[in-house]
Amino acid sequence: MSGGFDFSAWAEARRARVEAALEAWVPADAAAGLGEAMRYAVLDGGKRLRPLLVLASAEALGANPEDDAALRAACAVELIHAYSLVHDDMPCMDNDVLRRGKPTVHVRYGEAGALLAGDALQALAFELLTPEASPGTPTQTPPEAVTPPRLAHAPATQARLCGLLARAAGHAGMAGGQAIDLASVGRTLDAATLRDMHRLKTGALLTASVLLGAAATGLASVTPAWQALSAFGEAVGLAFQIVDDVLDVTADAATLGKTAGKDAAANKPTFVTLLGLEGARAEAAQLHRHALDALSELQRACPQAQLSALAALADAMVRREY
Question: Domains along the chain?
Answer without folding.
Answer: 7-319 (1.10.600.10)
